Amino acid sequence: MRRSQPSPRSRRSPPRTAASSVRIIAGRWRGTRLPIVTAPGLRPTADRIRETLFNWLLGECEQSRCLDLFAGSGALGFEALSRGASHCDLVELQPAAAAQLRANQQQLAAEASIFCCSAEQFLADPPAPTAAGGYQLVFLDPPFAEQLLPTIAEQLERSTLLAAQCWLYVELAAEQPFAAPPSWSLHRQRNSGGVSYRLYRRVADRATIA
């Protein structure tokens, strides 16, 4: 959900209108609006994209342990919690945005933990409780201009943080190439307004699948 300022590499990235709040679409907090930090480059994933994503997931959120690795507004992580996820770890680099995530977590009394650090730092040295059982649902929506996805995906795959079988959501500029790790199988993909959004299914040992 976090977007950096335009650069030569990102000039074709789709613009989005800045927002001061995000709306939870469905679940126990349906219709709740959560304040977000008004800052350059900080924009939530569009409602229509979130709705499509969670339709793809159907009941997979129920009791899942989630990771929102570039949380920004927290729109994806809090939506998952609203729809029945058991816990979500939200990672955000910007201190002001992380502070707002904590405030929203407290407002909702949500089962969530907020980490103010980079995605790379979190993956290199995650707090011990996050590794128990592995994440069943991961959201990856890094700043388009920084081209972080290939490195982060490989770092995540090499870590011990993922459940053997889990879902991974990836959002990137439509023209941006991305080769997922071999264990990630593309389940659904769609483009909207210059954004490509994809849902992968990870199977750690593909030889065990008939």
From TrEMBL:
CDD domains per record: AdoMet_MTases (cd02440)
Transmembrane segments: none
InterPro entries, per the entry: RNA_MeTrfase_RsmD (IPR004398), SAM-dependent_MTases_sf (IPR029063)
Gene3D superfamilies reported for this sequence: Vaccinia Virus protein VP39
Pfam families named among the record's database cross-references: Cons_hypoth95 (PF03602)
UniProt-listed Enzyme Commission number(s): 2.1.1.171
GO molecular function: 16S rRNA (guanine(966)-N(2))-methyltransferase activity
Alphabetical UniProt keywords: Methyltransferase, rRNA processing, S-adenosyl-L-methionine, Transferase
Reaction catalyzed: guanosine(966) in 16S rRNA + S-adenosyl-L-methionine = N(2)-methylguanosine(966) in 16S rRNA + S-adenosyl-L-homocysteine + H(+)
UniProt function note: Specifically methylates the guanine in position 966 of 16S rRNA in the assembled 30S particle.
Family membership noted in the UniProt record: Belongs to the methyltransferase superfamily. RsmD family.
Name by which UniProt lists this protein: Ribosomal RNA small subunit methyltransferase D
The species this protein was found in: Gammaproteobacteria bacterium LSUCC0057
